[in-house]
Every structure is written in C-alpha cells, then in structure tokens.
Amino acid sequence: MNLQEQNILFFTRTMKLGGTENVVLQLCEIFKPCVNKIVVCSCGGVNVEKLTAMGIKHIQINDIEEKSIPSILNTIKVLKKIVKEENITVIHTHHRMAAFYVSMLRLYKKCVFVNTSHNTFTDKRGLTRFAYKHGNLIACGKMVKKNLVDVYGLPEKQITVIHNAVKPFDGNIVEDPLIKQLHINGNFVVGNIGRLSEQKGMEYFIEAIPKIINKCPNAKFVIAGSGEDEAKLKKLSLELKVDDFLYFLGYRSDVQNLMSQLDLIVLSSLWEGLPLTPIEAFSVGKTIVATAVDGTVEIVTDDVDGCLVKERDSNQISDKVIYLLSSPKKKKSFEEEAQKTYFEEFSFDKLSKGYTEYYRGIE
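Above: the chain's sequence. Below: its structure in token form.
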C-alpha cells in the first residue's frame, strides 16, 4: 500500500478516555505525516479536542452500541456519506460494532478494511465472525489473538499482533501536593490507576489495605480514576475503616507524571486485552503488582519486573505489596528490569514501526 495516496477513516465507538481511544490518537499521530487524509468517526468525547489540536477531522455519529432501528439507519446513512464525501480508501475499525457496520454495508469491497481488537470476549460469536471475516485483523496482544482464534474460530494467519505502547515520559515532574506531603511524612505511597468499574477490580485493592497497613503502617494508598463504581468504592473504604489511609484523586490525565511519584503501582483488573497501566508504570521505571489476566502476563514477568497475583484475591495483593515494600533491593531490581521491558517491547517507536510496516504490507 502506498501510504501517501490513502484517506483513512478511524471508526470507533467513542473518543472518551480509555486505552482504545489512546491508540486511535497514537495512530493519528503516526499516520498524519505520511497519508493524504485522516478522518475519525465516533459518538464523541473529551479526546475530540485533541484531534482538533492535531488538525484531524472528527465526524459525530450515533453510539454504535445503540440498537434501535432509527439509530442503526442513521449510522448507516452517515457512514456511507463519510466514505463517499471524504473519498475514504482505508477503514480502520476499533470496535466490534464498527467492524459489523463495515461488513454489513460491504464497504470492504470499496476500501481496505483493517480492524484492531483491544480486548478479549466470549459473547456474540456469530456477529463477531461476521464482522471480522473480511478484515485485515490486528490484535493488541497474543492473548487477544488467541481469543479470536479459539473462541471465534478466525484463522490464525488473518491476525497480526502489534502490542500497545505509550510514549516515553518527558521527565518533567509536576509534583502532586498530596503525594509530596505523604512522602515528607515518611509514607510509602501505593497507587491504583484506572476506571472505577467492575473490570478494574478496585474493591480487591481496597480489601487488601488492612492487611498491608498491619505490616507496613507507613503505607498510604491512592486511587486515580472516575467511573460508575466511585460511590460504592468510597463506601467500602469507610466500612473497612481505611478511609484515613486511602485517597481518591479523581480522573488524572497526567498518568506517567503521577506514577513517577508513587512508590508502587497495583493493577487489580479482572480482565484485560493488553493494559496500558503496566506499560505506563514501566515507562517511568516503576514496578507493579498485577493480576495475571489475559494480556497482562504478556507485559509483566513474575518475580523479574513485577509480581503477578490471582484475580479477585485481596490476600495475594496484600502479600506482594508487603513483600516489595519490605524488600527495597528486590523492588529496585524489579524497577530496573521494568524499564528494560518497556524500551525493548512496548515503546512508542516500536508501535509506530509495527503499524507503518503493516499498512505498507497490505496489497
């Protein structure tokens, strides 16, 4: 494929905050200098402002998860109009329903059809096979590819793995006043960063706190993120009487800056495709205690650059946090290995090269 001749449509559900949206922004940055045009189509979100700042056109569309007949008909109408008026040559979807619309309208006959899968699923098998059948498929991790092959019966040769990545931190730390004060007071600060939703398993992190502070009384904890479970999690912290040790920071856009000031990161997710949290932690030389789910095990090597624990197990989380806070030499060793892992496997340069070569290789 000659990139200079291509007009790319990145078609996703939203441009809100999240890993998928971050990848779309990264791809816009990678391809903007080398293709003719980029258009992003979604139901909107805060990241639309970033697209505008990059000079990328965003076209609003109905939420593609909305299944009402009027919504479906409107989505079909708008999508057809975009492809025609913007002279789209490549449609790159980032959501199963986006791929479904491309397949239903047989747009793969007019345009090169690429899809990136960002998570693992087990539902909607017929719909998923139909949606992805004619696509050039990219999986963000080996477990996501395995999921597509084992659960949905898609051909292994149809799927290429390109790992998610994050840009290196610029090193300009903007001190967080709370964390700064906690450190002045002699505290270790342990953080969990992610959406406050079922997927992220934050309740198991909170349930691990009593045992940790029993062994490490100088430990303090922060949760950065927002979401539908916020009230429930704050109530849990009160019930467990850890509210004097745990601080809810709300949504933070400066994840690497925040992580660089923490002593340890925890990822308590119940499922993941290929999570950005460990990559972000590794990029600033921090180690992690993470649940051994799906793509997380592709990033974190147990007892080398971090610790893996069973999901839904607050005891294992507390044991590993205690282990690392009580073993500074081991923690330091893990941090050094974590940064090596980032540069060797999950750097932005590697992502950029992977996607650029993949596009050029499409006939």
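The longest strand covers residues 37-42.
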